[in-house]
Amino acid sequence: MKIAFIGAGIMGRPMAGHLQQAGHELLLVQHRSPLPPELLSAGASARATAREVTAEAEVIILMLPDTPDVETVLFGTGGVAEGLTPGKCVIDMSSIDPIATRRFAARIAEAGCDYVDAPVSGGEVGARNAALTIMCGAEPHVFERVRPLFELMGKNITRVGGVGDGQVAKVANQIIVALNIEAVAEALVFASKAGADPARVREALMGGFAASRVLEVHGERMIKRTFDPGFRIELHQKDLSLALAGARSLGLALPNTASTQQLFSACVAAGGGAKDHSAMVQALERLAGHAVASDAEG
Q: Please, what are the domains in the chain?
């Protein structure tokens, strides 16, 4: 199958690589990140515009940072929409606004093409290991058509419902992850300030009901100060903005999501937007006047 892949960045690069290793022909166009040389050397072709790769491909996959990026790539000058012909399928694996997703899908359908929203969870590690959780919104027959592609990139693949429902599930996922990161950060700041060894506290908690993947992975990051991004604060901040905007439209209160968003905003204001989202702990450390680790950054 010829697949156009737009957005071969931290997450997209290994995802596209899995498709290529399975024998699919990759067509690439640069978005923000430079085109990965390893994909090009393995046979991927580069084109100048999204329109060009779309015209050649059967399936078009997007893995982009935010809603405006997706809209521009789809409908801007030289965009995907200009290269569509009936029967193609557009798969958006970005994490964006569910309402905008449904609007985009309706415009793609006017060209006689299918649309799937399939945001992912699992971070860079999940992308590299083809172990992503993929949350899909699509008609059943469309989902079954592209499911073999998802199986090359992930392990937990679920059709949540119709178009847009995958994005709803991703927003829900990001609420849970953010609040878990905040809870782990509070716990480790508390433990350290109280004079206990936070590494030993984390080890003890991993054997009890407080155990979680966030405590395992991000708790270790907080202690070891390894904040190179698997998933950037500024992107999680964007996802919580989607959650809070959706909540306003639904007349719904998400109080802990709102307070956690403020901690992400404090990190961004301090210049930490490009750090891993586990670096949220630094906002709590500044409030406490105490760092989890003695060699912590300011």
A: 2-161 (3.40.50.720), 169-288 (1.10.1040.10)
